[in-house]
Amino acid sequence: MSETVFTYAAPALKFGSGASAELGHDLAALGARRILLVTDPGVAATGNPERIAEQVRARGLEVTTYDGVRVEPTDASMEHAIAFARDAGPFDAVLAVGGGSSIDTAKAVNLLTTNPGELMDYLNAPVGRAQAPSQPLLPLVAVPTTTGTGSESTTICVLDVLSLHVKTGISHPALRPTMAVVDPQLTMGQPAMVTAAAGMDILCHALESWTARWFADFDAKTPEQRVPYCGANPIADLWAQRAMSLLAGSFRRAVADGGDVEAREQMALAATFAGLGFGNAGVHVPHANAYPIAGRVRDYRPEGYPDGEPIVPHGMAVTLTAPEAFRFTFEASPQRHLEAARLLEPDVTGDGPDVLPGVLTRLMRDIGIPSGLAEVGYLDSDVDDLVEGALKQQRLLATAPREVRAEDLATVFRDSMHHW
Hints:
55% of the residues are buried. This protein is of the alpha/beta class. A six-stranded parallel beta sheet has the order 1-8-5-4-2-3, sandwiched between helices. The chain has a two-stranded antiparallel sheet with strand order 6-7.
């Protein structure tokens, strides 16, 4: 029997320039008195987290700040944050101020300060034990400072498991933030490469949810079997389409000029809309591939990111196989792929599997994304390991519009070594 039901959920949303100044009111309305603010050193250096903390304190609330989040979190960095929170608590709300790394770390902290066990108990199978929370979580308010990850809208947090050299995550409806406060002013002046990588994450969120397997093509589920990613559906489609339209007019401008207020506001809206879409429909091949690309990085250090350990930023990792991934999925829904291409590049012509990859490749070149996996340090000899890592992301691959085999992934990885 085929599925006849789809689900949709989203956090409460406050959007607009200056919205972050109202967080004291918002947290008090949630009944919070002791708040843990979670951020990273780079965001802390902007002064925005401390300004927000002071505005919250002015409402008579107590704020403790943890500013040790690692950009592209690991199991070790999340465990450090969890230990801090357990030591400094108890708290009755969590406030995340930062990019996806800060918001994802806040989700893990929220989970592990309210529920027993350790990270591995909750990580998605087959990497972890995929245990569901047994206790309610605290209210979590997410304030994104980058336009991209959509973590403020979703039920997942992503991390690298250092011992396994793999990126994985935790997925459960309880992780979804209670409220998302999106203030485009917090994204002004973001480095060009950060804008480019995070923006490509927005784009792939929208594209992957738009091209995901249709919800009614799955087998029927019982209520207990329902998961946050239910496949493409009429509501998620609306968000994905609008996100792509906004990106078409703002993405290149936002990368070229970090002070372009209108472009930043449109990017923030696009990120929010894409998050509301993919947080319910799901993502598939490019995101599954991104996990081992980021998790097995050797020595790539992108401009605009913190010095220190090498990283392939999440949005960049997603992007690097996207053209070939969408060439692979084209046959499942040609019309959807072509419609997406025309939303992103209204003047594009053609009607075959090369159209959408061509749109993506031109955009990648224009905004300074690396030319392929080879530019971030991967070789043909790495393909088997990358395939192995991607195959562990069955939660994502299940949402792909066609069956994904090991040999299919190998072709996508090999053909993504050089896009130009």
